[in-house]
Design goal:
Strand 14 and strand 15 form a beta hairpin. The strands form 4 sheets. This protein has a 5-stranded parallel β-sheet with strand order 3-2-4-5-6, with helices on both faces. Helix content is 38%, strand content 21%. It has 3 domains: 154 residues, OB fold (Dihydrolipoamide Acetyltransferase, E2P); 203 residues, inorganic pyrophosphatase (n-terminal core) (Alpha-Beta Complex), CATH 3.90.1640.30; 101 residues, Diaminopimelate Epimerase, Chain A, domain 1.
Length: 570
């Protein structure tokens, strides 16, 4: 599909605001809302002590902390009930390891089977935990939609503390404590966008403040888990999340967890204290491997990897995740090929895509829906057919809230929940045709703008502007992620002086380009872009959209254009 390019406005100020920086860096910062040196300094150099908000501003935090620090906690058997994705797994490891090491509590984790049990708490799981003499359940990255299950647990003598970050659908559970920055009852906490692992960290931060047994810096050594879970869950990397991830990446560079070190080895990530891992590496190399466990088999594999202190066991579990991730890639590609073939055969696409199949694996369809939503620029819902029940996931586009759309069809759904852009649902087979009809009608009504993928470009550049200083300045904006994306630049009318294809299947494109004055030449790499480059040839003038990066190879560094899109110049 064709893509629309939207270029940021040019700075019209007569005086420089950040004169010590390259003009392109300044333009990008101004476009992103920075007004003065003070704002820029606090963004470039976060302060761990000052930038983290008071955890006791969160509703029910005092009750939850009091329960954990009560005398009976020593005799309790506490279950950490986590979700099966990277956010839930890291949150489960965080709480379990902290409670064991710092407080000496009797604690274990329970992560449900995605295929058999589905998302969140279930009565079957609660029965299982009751048989193990559990007296307290602490959820992480789930629980806010489990109204009936929380009632059931408490009727069976099990107290529940909910640590979640998902939108509240209807009424919230009547648990001992409900800690969720998106809870409508939450009036004081200044930041709503924490990941599940971030909410768990705030809980531990509050406990540490009230427990004289915990050393002042002990909590910081758990920030590696917080960074990975936060980046993996694609929450905005602003405000408190930025601080947690920034310092978490520092801890990750010298992590004591052998599981992380094995994942770095498999992902071919070279790190040390002077070469910190990047959020992009977490998002594309570490998080998919952790997520592969819950998508393909059971998240326990990833949980055990991050909990173990045994090198040989970590190596074995990391290899298992590597194999599962490769299988996950194959299964995802099979789904994408099938759905895209059907969609490309249509003359006109509806404003929302809703598909189902008995062959699809429940752990893969959310990922596939996300890739389709990005490519076709419209909401996508994929559902697994299993007997009389359809279960699945939806991914959306800016401006269309999935949870609100599901609320409109609540009479047809057994269960739903999540975020505005990513949510899950369950419905009876007999309701599927009506749900599809009504959901697509809702999209037709609410989505007014043209459904063409838009690439947001920070700034127009010229070949002479591209230099190492610019690259170094842009890197100060790291960690990059949602709402603090890697800067996107545009070069117009550059000439192709060489072109070739790379990779086993020659799927990747490499270009060498120069300006019309021929003073500078740069290499560009476009992963998976070979197929789209058939219409351009050596000697053509093209416009390039790219990220600027340093390519490290054989001990040397050189500037490289990481291609996002291109077209022939007008």
């Amino acid at each position: 599909m064709g893509k629309k390019w939207k270029v940021g406005k040019k700075n019209k100020k007569s005086e420089r605001v950040f004169p010590e920086l390259e003009k392109l860096t300044e333009q990008i910062l101004l476009n992103r809302g920075f007004k003065n040196e003070k704002e820029l300094e606090s963004f470039f150099v976060p302060d761990y002590e000052k930038d983290l908000h008071d955890p006791f501003l969160l509703n029910d935090m005092k009750k939850a902390v009091k329960r954990i620090l009560s005398k009976k906690s020593k005799n309790d058997k506490i279950c950490i009930f986590g979700d099966y994705d990277a956010d839930g797994v890291t949150g489960s490891v965080l709480l379990t390891s902290f409670f064991k090491k710092e407080l000496g509590l009797k604690v274990f984790s329970y992560i449900p089977d995605r295929e058999e049990e589905g998302y969140g708490m279930s009565k079957g799981a609660i029965d299982n935990l009751k048989n193990q003499n559990t007296t307290l359940i602490i959820t992480v990255d789930c629980g806010i939609t489990n109204v009936e299950e929380v009632d059931y647990a408490q009727k069976n003598g099990i107290e529940v503390i909910i640590l979640d970050h998902h939108d509240v659908v209807g009424s919230s559970p009547k648990a001992l404590a409900v800690i969720d920055p998106k809870n409508p009852k939450e009036k004081k906490y200044p930041f709503r966008e924490l990941a599940g692992v971030g909410v768990a960290f705030k809980f531990l931060q509050a406990i540490a403040q009230k427990s004289p047994k915990i050393k002042e810096d002990a909590l910081k050594w758990y920030l590696d888990l917080v960074a990975v879970g936060t980046v993996a869950d694609c929450v905005p990397l602003l405000d408190e999340n930025r601080t947690l991830v920034k310092f978490g990446l520092m801890v990750l560079a010298k992590t004591k967890r052998v599981g992380f070190r094995q994942l770095f080895q498999n992902g071919r990530i070279q790190i040390n204290e002077s070469e910190l891992p990047k959020a992009e590496q977490i998002a594309f190399q570490i998080a998919p491997r952790i997520n592969a466990a819950g998508r393909m088999k059971h998240a326990e594999t990833a949980y055990n990897l991050l909990m173990t202190k045994d090198e040989s066991k970590a190596s074995e579990l990391a290899k298992e995740l590597e194999n599962e991730n490769k299988n996950r890639q194959k299964v995802t590609n099979d789904i994408l090929k099938k759905v895209k073939k059907e969609l490309n055969a249509k003359k006109k696409l509806p404003k929302a895509i809703v598909k189902s199949s008995p062959e699809w694996k429940i752990g893969i369809i959310g990922l596939s829906a996300g890739k389709l939503a990005e490519e076709f620029a419209r909401p996508v819902i994929l559902l697994q057919e299993k007997g009389k029940i359809f279960r699945g996931s939806g991914r959306s586009i800016p401006g269309f809230n999935l949870v609100k759309a599901f609320e409109e069809q609540a009479d047809l759904l057994k269960k739903y929940g999540g975020h505005s852009q990513a949510a899950g649902l369950t419905l009876a087979r007999e309701n599927f045709p009506e749900f599809k009809k009504r959901f697509q009608a809702e999209a037709e009504k609410k989505i007014i703008k043209s459904l063409i993928k838009t690439i947001s470009i920070d700034v127009r550049a010229e070949i002479k502007d591209i230099n190492n200083k610019l690259c170094e300045e842009l890197s100060m904006l790291e960690p990059f992620g949602k709402e603090n994306e890697l800067p996107v630049l545009l070069l117009e009318k550059v000439k192709i002086i060489n072109k070739k294809f790379l990779g086993k299947d020659e799927k990747h494109l490499k270009l060498w380009v120069e300006g019309l004055n021929r003073t500078e030449m740069f290499e560009g790499i476009g992963f998976g872009m070979a197929e789209n480059s058939k219409d351009i040839k050596i000697g053509d003038e093209i416009d390039l959209v790219f990220n600027l990066e340093q390519n490290h190879w054989n001990g040397t560094k050189k500037l490289q254009l990481k291609l996002i899109d291109f077209k022939k110049s007008d």
